Amino acid sequence: MPLYDLPVDQLRTYRPDVAEPEDFDEFWAGTLDDARRHPLGLQVLPVASGLRTVEVFDVTFAGFGGHPIKAWYTRPAGVAGDLPVVVQYQAYGGGRGLAHERTLWANAGYAYLFMEPRGQGSTWGNGGQTPDPVGNGPARPGSMTRGILDPREHYYRRLFTDGVRAVEAARALPGVDGSRVIVTGISQGGGVTLAVAGLVPDLVGVMADVPFLCHIRRGAEISPQDPYLEVAGYLAVQRNHVEQAFRTLSYIDAVNFARRANAPALVSVGLMDQICPPSTVYAAVNHYGSRSGGPRPDVDVVEYPFNDHEGGDAHQQARQLAWVAERFGA
């Protein structure tokens, strides 16, 4: 697990020219407009989780295409009034798991919505329940190459839209103060977090841990592991698709969303991370807020010099608890 990427002093100033399509804003505005033509269809059902200090609810809402997306809503038991809410997105391959698993933010005194990624949930963890009913052309196993030749068909167009709709669902939940929302996630969840930060203009905060999907072309060129290796493996076979594939991926590159974010952010990076190379994370960090239309928002970066993709783990959670309390005024 060596230090294989740029020297740390270069990482901290690494601000590459990441490809961005000219119609990026129009593409995403149209995508969200299409999604919002479907009623949110929010369903909130209490769950007998066996927990005494938190209440858990099974949530369903309409995501991309009106497709039903599952989530857990957790909040402190017996607490009246509207609470600020943390919305979290899952890492690659995981599902929402079981009702009793997601308790940290509710135990900290906040409302908490944990969204399941469509079509995932059977790689690790305790399972998922949200299908992805959309098909795609020839692809390598995994999600990165699903729809890779057309941004309208790409998997992450659907997942990022689901992520925005999850914020809208969280704001509509009973017992939630919709004016105070923080989004968070690890790895894939961190990439979704940055995408949502660029698409939702009134968040209180953004927490992205070892985020995936940043500077995707560099990730595909230097990462020795999946999921970026899915792209490299696909292009090793589909040799004539290189430029078309990376044009599609530029529509879902988290750097391009990070440019548009305007909420303060807390980002972690593992300097020995072989899944999400540190230079890709710093590409998003150093572009963050550059096209927000106002002063550049604060970005706190926490480096873990000898850590791989586990990043800060519980140490980072401790930082997040303090950071969230400050943002929510708790």
Automatic annotation (TrEMBL):
Residue ranges constituting the Acetyl xylan esterase domain according to the UniProt record: 1-325
Active-site residues (renumbered): 187, 273, 309
Originating organism: Actinotalea fermentans
Lineage: Bacteria, Bacillati, Actinomycetota, Actinomycetes, Micrococcales
Protein name listed in UniProt: Acetylxylan esterase
Region (Disordered): 123-146
Gene3D superfamilies: alpha/beta hydrolase
Coiled coil (UniProt feature): none
GO BP, sorted A to Z: polysaccharide metabolic process
Domain of life: Bacteria
Gene Ontology MF term list: carboxylic ester hydrolase activity
Pfam families linked to this entry: AXE1 (PF05448)
Residues reported to bind substrate: 92
